[in-house]
Amino acid sequence: MQTITLNNGVKIPQLGYGTAAIGGWQADNDYVKDTILKAIELGFRHIDTASLYGNERSVGRAIQESGIPREEFFVTTKVWHTEQGAANTVHAFDRSRERLQMEYLDLYLIHWPYPEKTQETWTEMEGLLDDGLIKSLGLSNFRASDITDLLSYARHKPVYNQLELHPYFTQKELADFCTAHDIAVSCWSPLGTGEWNDTPKDEKPILDAAIAEIAAKHNVSAVQVILKWNLQSGRIVIPKSETPKNMASNLDLDGFTLDAQEITRIGSLDKGKRFGGDPDHVHDNAMAQIVPA
Predict the structure, then answer these.
(1) Which domains does the chain show, CATH number per domain?
(2) Active site residue 168
């Protein structure tokens, strides 16, 4: 599987498997485990979870039951809003590691910016990195201003920023800022199809006429076109699917290449249409959400 080398020399598979809300929000059961195991059997090795998703145990069980050595996986999890700060972050990490049943994590992210806590949280994370318990440190949903502030005190530079990014919300200015600072850009909700928002399906990028035209030209699906657009643009992408057919399709991206005009055309579809949370306004809602034990 194609990889990207992060700014600390660590290689990350460019195509990952997202696990948010498999089988329902914060579900953690055999269905979740078996779904993740099927993704592994089909070829996914980069698995993205978070303490708030409530399914870290299922992720760990799936990896263990796969029979594939731990070192062949790239596992990401995240520290939630209520877990941030000097008194909390190490304990939150320890709980995640215990649920995952792993000696180390490949990548640990701050799930959303919490400026009043970021320096304390990052310092705790750097200590975990120094101790060899984390291979890389990164961010999720961080704005340029948040990153600029963090870079002023960080001993270890973030390797990665995970953003809502899809053809209707390209976040070009922020993505370019990350690239200029050698911070890899990763896309959550890369298809803009999350069922957690109220946007009608016909207003989402997978039904865009331009993408349909490009898909027909290459005899592939709109989903495959969007994923390929991200990969060819040098971004990491973590689609979620619960069906083996769609998982396999998401992995089957080597048989076609988008030309420069097609890449530009897809990028020009941007509508500034955010479907998920806005870091400018997420704080109160995030503080009200509870990480399962």
Answers:
(1) 13-274 (3.20.20.100)
(2) no
